Structures are given as structure tokens and as C-alpha cells.
Amino acid sequence: MTSADVDPDGAEKFAYYEAAIATKSEGKLEKAAKLLEKSCVPPSIYKGHYRELFQIWRNFNRQDLKEKEYNRVIDRVKKMIRYDNEMIEEMLKYWSKMQNRKLPSNYFDRDRNLKMTDVKALISAAERVRNEPLKMEAVKISARFQKQ
Questions:
Q1: Which one, of 81, 13, 80, 19, lies nearest residue 46 by Cα?
Q2: What is the pTM of this model?
Q3: What domains appear along the chain, each with residue ranges and CATH number?
Q4: Residue 111: is it exposed, middle or buried by C-beta count within 10 angstroms (0-12/13-18/19+)?
Q5: For residue 136, is pLDDT > 90?
Q6: Which pLDDT score, from 0 to 100, does residue 148 have?
Q7: What is the pLDDT at residue 134?
Q8: How far is CA 40 from CA 50, 99, 133, 146, in A?
């Protein structure tokens, strides 16, 4: 019996992760990001997959900000926020079940992969396209970092 027999979904996600890391080391970041995204959709508890994806996307965000591609940054960071929240929800569901108790909603807040630099990129891009509601939403998210 192998891990793929016990957890075929997890084994498939791990295969995507391994392929993505190999592809990333070859410098093929777009392809690596696509492979990592496959291991994050649908949401999973595998934090490292999200961490690697977000690292690649941060590089893209820096590049896109320099190239004034603000809408790409906005779309990417909004996706990062969504994925990070989905990962935390999945972790809460999984570990609550494993521990047979309801965990508090902030239990895994230190495991989040979203960083202040991501939120700052969103604020910057929102300012450049003059999207005040999005900027205010990003400012609210940044408040979470002051609490830690």
C-alpha cells in the first residue's frame, strides 16, 4: 500500500508540487506557477504549495508594478488573498475533524502565506488605477498584520 492508495488527491497534489519545484529550478516560473496552482485548486491543507506559488507571484508582481501592469497585480493579489483564506478554511476543517473539536477561526493565522508586501502591492496598484474601494479593502487587510 502506498500513500497514493491512502490519499490519491494528496499524492496528485504532491506530484504537481514536485514537478513545479523542478520547473522552478530550471527558471520556468510561469509553468511552475501553473503547476502549483493545480495543487491549490481545489483548496488543500498543503501550506508549502501555496508558499511556493506566492513566492513566484511576488516576483511577477514586482515586475508588473515596474511595467505599470497594475490590473495584473490587482488580479493576482486578489487571487492570493482568496487562496490564502481558502487554505486556512481547509486547514480548520481538516484539523477540527482530526482533533474532534472546533478550532477558533484564528488558530492558523500564523500559517498564512500572504505577506504585507502583497498587500502593499495591492494598495499601490489600486492607487495607480484610482480604485479607492479596493485600496480601502487592502488597508483593512493590512490591519491584520499590525495585530501579529
A1: 13
A2: 0.90
A3: 3-147 (1.25.40)
A4: middle
A5: yes
A6: 53
A7: 96
A8: 7, 23, 28, 27
Q: What is the per-residue pLDDT for 147?
A: 61
Contacts of 54 (CB under 8 A, 6+ apart): 80, 84, 113, 114, 115, 118
CB 73 within 8 A of CB 61: yes
d(CA 90, CA 43): 7
**DSSP secondary structure string, 63-128?**
HHHHTT-HHHHHHHHHHHHHHHHHHHHHHHHHHHHHHTSPPPTTTTGGG----HHHHHHHHHHHHH
- Taking only the tens place, the pLDDT of each residue in 109-134 is 999 999 999 999 999 999 999 999 99
CB-CB contact of 61 with 69 (8 Å) = no
User: In angstroms, rounded to a whole number, what is the distance separating the alpha carbons of residues 27 and 111?
Assistant: 27
Position of cell 491543507?
45
Q: Does 30 score more than 60 pLDDT?
A: yes
Residue 47: name the closest of 77, 2, 92, 3 by CA.
92
